[in-house]
Write a structure and sequence with these properties.
Structural class: alpha+beta
Shape: rod-shaped
Order of helices and strands: HHEEE
Helix content: 40-55%
Largest sheet: 3 strands, antiparallel
Number of strands: 3
Radius of gyration: 21 Å
Number of helices: 2
Strand order of the largest sheet: 1-2-3
Strand content: 15-25%
Length: 123
Amino acid sequence: MTLEVAILFPVVLLIIFGGIQAALYFHARGVALSAAQQGVRVAKAENGTAGAGSAAARSFVSQAGGTDVLTGLDVGSSRNVDRASVTVSGRPLSVLPGIPNFRVTQSAHGPVEQFTAPGGVAP
């Protein structure tokens, strides 16, 4: 009986920690996507900027747990006349030592808001 336990116990622990690692990965992925969406909402506003979009995305990650969720956070944003884009990437926490941590990268894009006066003429 002890031999079976000695063989099965590490396998069971690996399965448990593998499930926890998967949950941490998917949570970090969801936070990165939400941060990118928040950043693009700010960047695509009529008077928004790419810098404001990056700041909003960083603020979102900070409020969602900061380095407890994503380590090595990298936020990139761009905005031109027609489109705004924000990309958030980082690494989820690792509970499995010796296994390389996967990088999470999520992006959000959207058209820049442009308002026109009644009659279709730009102000």
